[in-house]
DNA sequence: CATTTGTTACGATTATTTTCGTAAGCAATA
DNA sequence: TATTGCTTACGAAAATAATCGTAACAAATG
């Protein structure tokens, strides 16, 4: 089971993916140590989850040495898009504009960030 | 169990909330009929779900007549914010700006919509 | 009045997700 | 060599979510 397109990671799987996206490569222990900061589950729980994710193709691993080394097998960008799509559909009646307005209106954005958004907006308007 | 702040609706519950947000008030049958369009589950499944949601405070109901009339008890806006917050945290490293850019970049927006966003952006820049 | 139809209540089953306990193996080290 | 520590594998329990079957009842209808 090499690649896993359109497989939706569960909540816990997402937490692990976040660690892997951040670290690029990691052992079970490293992942578990990182998660431990704000969650408490046993080591074997993390291990099992990674094994399941491997089955699904969400991660790949190098098992050439005793201690396996894991790596994400789905990109952060694709996963973001997947979840965004789902969210737009289920909470914003399919309108990504509504979602954008919501996010803009209800969260803090620095001057620099607003400018960054303005740039992108300008580009889009040119089309 | 009157109000249910910070209770996260499940996938199925969200589907039902969508119907209720749209219809304002509805009987179990109406909800079920609507869902039937793109999902197939038995009538009692929808009923049970609505009963559970009532327990949790996600919906309220008028049971003065035999056929109960349900109504959402959490607003679409609050729910949107909840999910957005979760998403920003779990997939965009806490940056709502990144989320906005993603949504702007990867989805279609009409000229009118872009203008609408520009308006909001202008307002934000004034602060 | 008897029957059919539509409704709620609710226990129970099934499916999915999360968690953990235990076994087995290997490698470092006492 | 024996022990200790860290690792994977894996079955199974616990927790959560979704589904349905059946009973009970009331209102409409024949």
**Could you state the CATH homologous superfamily of the largest domain in chain A?**
Winged helix-like DNA-binding domain superfamily/Winged helix DNA-binding domain
Order of helix and strand elements from N to C terminus of chain A:
HHHEEHHH
CATH overall fold name of the largest domain in chain A: Arc Repressor Mutant, subunit A
The helical percent of chain A reads 55-70%
How far apart are the first and last residues' alpha carbons of chain A, in Å?
A: 41 Å
Q: What is the tally of helical segments of chain A?
A: 6
Q: Estimate nothing, just give the exact number of structural domains of chain A.
A: 2
What Rg of chain A, in angstroms, do the CA atoms define? 18 Å
Strand content of chain A: 5-15%
Mean of pLDDT of chain A:
94
CATH class of the largest domain in chain A: Mainly Alpha
Strand order within the widest sheet of chain A? Answer: 1-2
- What is the CATH architecture descriptor of the largest domain in chain A? Orthogonal Bundle
Largest sheet of chain A: 2 strands, antiparallel
Structural overview:
- 2 copies of one chain form a homodimer.
- With 127 residues, the first copy, chain A, is mainly α.
- Chain A folds into 2 domains: 11-72, Orthogonal Bundle (Arc Repressor Mutant, subunit A); 76-126.
- Chain A has helices at 11-23, 28-36, 43-56, 76-91, 96-106, 111-126; strands at 59-62, 69-72.
- Chain A has a two-stranded antiparallel ribbon with strand order 1-2.
- In chain A, α2 (28-36) crosses α3.
- Chain A is elongated and about 55 Å long.
- The first copy, chain A, starts with 10 loop residues before the first helix and ends with a helix.
- The model of chain A has no long low-confidence stretch (mean pLDDT 94).
- At the A-B interface, α1, α4, α5 and α6 of A face α1, α4, α5 and α6 of B.
- The first copy, chain A, binds a DNA duplex (30 and 30 nucleotides) through residues 10-13, 27-29, 41-45, 47-49, 51-52, 63, 66-68.
